[in-house]
Specification:
Helix content is about 25%, strand content about 25%. By secondary structure, the chain is of the alpha+beta class. It has 3 domains: about 5-70, 2-Layer Sandwich (Uridine Diphospho-n-acetylenolpyruvylglucosamine Reductase, domain 2), CATH 3.30.43.10; about 75-220, 2-Layer Sandwich (Uridine Diphospho-n-acetylenolpyruvylglucosamine Reductase, domain 3), CATH 3.30.465.10; about 230-340, UDP-N-acetylenolpyruvoylglucosamine reductase, C-terminal domain (Uridine Diphospho-n-acetylenolpyruvylglucosamine Reductase, domain 1). The longest helix has 19 residues, at about 315-330.
Length: about 350
């Protein structure tokens, strides 16, 4: 495994932003992961694990440590309805593989950028599906115990956009392989309203058709990586949908000047509801295309902050802070950034 020095990180991110890593290495095998961890330990160097770079904002000053890019490949069958994929496999390629062998469960997650290894960390979800619904176990290297572990779905502690890996134990585990339990011959998921409108009313659509429509919707929102399209230079949804107590709905309705029944929300149990961050932004004046200069809100998706060309991390952070302040001033709700900040 080669350890390179002073490697620019911007090309490894979908935002195309970021300074240099003091050290950089690629782990193509699990033995490389162990070697990199040991190398960093011996030198007292911080280590950051890089996947597809689709949920990452890198500081302009870069990272004074070792960035380890996980490129463990391979998709294998591990029994009826079970697929095991290396953390370095491109996520959308895994979705295509599952569809190709007739396994349902991830078709609505088509078009999401990044790699397989990043999906359990963020518990990615879209259009009525969450990856946690299909994950059976995660293989990872435990940097604290210096040993390999197999974590069950329960041990991963999945919640909305959260897991063990990005909350209780951030940085402790390096994911190298994920085992998925899918539904052979299963029907496609049509829980999401937009999919129902586009595909409902006729024969049950195939998994491939659902994936195609999902990609079309994502493309229409600038959330599909397409070379040359400025709106695609983003880290996806930049803010999490906030979860608040039901009593907050009244306050939000008054601030927005609407009836409480007009505030979009979803019940999540225990007297709490999830509010769409995009709606909050729009009500606070942060609409599609907002912003002057190199950083702005996508012209096709309210939640995506984009690099219009030549943007720096500082530009994105200034826009982020402006939006957070504006939404808090209007609704009393503090939005949380979804992408990881490195540096």
């Amino acid at each position: 495994m080669e350890i390179r020095e002073e490697v620019l990180l911007a090309p490894f991110t979908t935002l195309g932003i970021g300074g240099r890593a003091r050290y950089f290495a690629v782990a193509a095998a699990e033995t490389d992961v162990e070697a990199a961890v040991e190398w960093a330990r011996e030198r007292g160097v911080r280590l950051f694990v890089l996947g597809g770079g689709s949920n990452l904002l890198v500081k302009d000053s870069g990272f004074e440590g070792l960035v380890l890019q996980i490129k463990v490949e391979g998709i294998e069958s591990c029994g009826e309805g079970c697929l095991s994929a290396g953390a370095g496999v491109v996520w959308d390629e895994f979705v295509e593989h599952a569809i190709g062998v007739g396994m349902a469960g991830v078709e609505c997650l088509a078009g999401i950028p990044g790699s397989v290894g990043g999906t359990p960390v963020q518990n990615v979800g879209a259009y009525g599906q969450e990856v946690a619904e299909t994950i059976e176990s995660v293989r990872a290297f435990d940097r604290e115990a210096m040993e390999w572990v197999e974590l069950s779905k329960a041990e991963c502690r999945f919640r909305y956009r959260e897991s063990l890996f990005n909350t209780a134990e951030p940085g402790r585990y390096i994911v190298t392989r994920v085992r998925f339990r899918l539904r052979p011959g299963g029907e496609a998921n049509l829980r999401y309203a937009d999919l129902q409108r586009r595909l409902g009313g006729g024969e049950r659509p195939s998994l491939r058709e659902v994936a195609r429509v999902v990609r079309e919707i994502r493309h229409g929102k600038g959330m599909l990586l397409v070379e040359g399209e400025a709106d695609c230079r983003s880290a996806g949804s930049f803010f999490k949908n906030p979860i608040v107590g039901e009593q907050v709905l009244g306050t939000v309705a008054v601030a927005a000047g609407v009836d409480v029944n007009q505030v979009p929300h979803w019940a999540v149990g225990e007297g709490r509801v999830k509010l769409p961050a995009a709606w909050l932004l729009e009500q606070a004046g942060f609409v599609k295309g907002y912003g002057v200069g190199a950083a702005g809100i996508s012209t096709r998706h309210t939640l995506a902050l984009t690099n219009r060309g030549g943007a720096t991390c500082a530009d994105i952070e200034r826009l982020q802070e402006e939006i957070v302040r504006g939404v808090e001033a209007r609704f009393g709700i503090v939005l949380e950034r979804e992408p990881v900040l490195l540096g």
